[in-house]
Amino acid sequence: MHVEIWSDIACPWCYVGRARFGAALAGFEHRDDVTVTWRSFELDPDAPAEREGTHADLIAKKYGRTLEEVAQMDAQLTATAAADGLEMRFSELRSGNTFDGHRLVHLAAEHGLQDAMKERLFRAYFSEGALISDHATLEALAVEVGLDADAVREVLAGDRFAEAVRDDERDAHAAGISAVPCFVIDRKYGASGAQPAETLLQFLEHGWAQREAAPAAS
Asked: Which residues are within 8 A (CB) of 150 and not within 5 positions of it... i.e. 6 or more apart?
C-alpha cells in the first residue's frame, strides 16, 4: 500500500501530522507492507529567502490578528505539539522559502533517507530557529542524516529535483489539494489535516480493507 503525504516544511500542522501518522503507522498491523512518500507543497511559493520581521509580526499582519491573539494561538499550538512529543519555539522562527528544502527531500528519497530528512528539516525549523533556505544550513542538516556532502552541494548549486518539486505541486493541484498535510492512499483515498493518530490508523485500515476487497486483475 502506498501512502503519499503532501506537506510543507514551514507548516506546523504538517509537523504534528507527521508525528501522528508515525504513531498510526506503528500501530498498523500491515505497516511492513506500507510505502510512504513525502510530496512537496509550498504554502508560499513566492516567499523570499528570508522574511523581515518576527514570526508574531508576520502572522499578525497576514491574518489581521493582534500580537496578543498570535501569542495565544502559538501557545495553544505549542501545547498541542508537546503532547505529540514535539518542541516548537515560535519566537525563534526564521521564515523563508522552502523550495530547496523540498529538493533535498527528493535527493534523500534516492538514498532511503526521505523520512529522516523531512523530520530533520521540521525540527530545525520549528525547534532550532534554522533558516531552511540557507544552503550551508541545508547542507549541514542533510549530511547529519547521512547524505553525501558533495551530492548535496551539487543539488543546491543547480536545479536538480526542481521539476520533481513542481510535479508534486501540480499533482496536488490536479487532485484538489489546497491545504496540508494531506494523506493519500494509492491515489484513491485521502485524509486532510493533522488528524489524531487513532483517526489516521482507521484511515490506514480502511485503505487496506479496500485493497483486500478489490477484485483481482484479470
From this structure: none
Q: Are 119 and 159 in contact (CB under 8 A)?
A: no
How would residue 152 be classed by pLDDT, with cut points 50, 70 and 90? Answer: very high
Residue-number span of the structural domain to which 74 is assigned: 2-213
Instruction: Tell me how crowded residue 20 is: count the other CB atoms within 10 A of its CB.
Output: 22
**pLDDT tens profile 133-146:** 999 999 999 999 99
Grouping H, G, I as helix, E, B as strand and the rest as coil, residue 59 is helix
In a domain, 218, yes or no: no
The CATH number of the domain holding residue 99 is 3.40.30.10
